[in-house]
Amino acid sequence: MTVLTNTVLAELITSAYRTGPYELPGGGILDEYFDPYQLTGDPHRLRTVAAALADLLPAGTEAVAGPALAAVPLVAAVALHTGLPAAYLRPASKHHGTHRQTEGADLNGRRTVLLDDTARTGANLLLAASTLRETGAVVAGAVCILDRDAGAAALLADHGLSLAALLHDPGRAR
Predict the structure, then answer these.
(1) Taking the chain, what is the end-to-end CA distance rounded to the nearest angstrom?
(2) What are phi and psi of 62, to 5 degrees?
């Protein structure tokens, strides 16, 4: 089990936070932006985050999956750390090659946990859970690095899913 000390958490926060303003996809503005690529682009930080995320996986997890783009290195790193199969979700099905929206391990019947960098409203995680269920996955919940505490946990709970996070932040959307 990995225990993140306050020093490690401070390092993660310092390395990944950027001051804004940053525009959200839905139109809001954040004064601070959590840049997951500052964590996933550094092998030491990625290893630390993967181990910590793995500790948050619910008992009985049989696979991990996450949406492109920010979650891809997280899913791969957690899969390497745990030995669990991994899958990746595209925003939409490809129009060439396999024509699939979900790539990687076969999730049919597997208790799968979604991984992502940040949870805000939970809408994207809920959409990803729906996509995974279409592949036959049994979605067991979601785990993220940062929960901005803007409704994701409540929305997912309304749909029978739990959300665990390494860090919580009030998210200063205005």
Answers:
(1) 38
(2) -110, -10
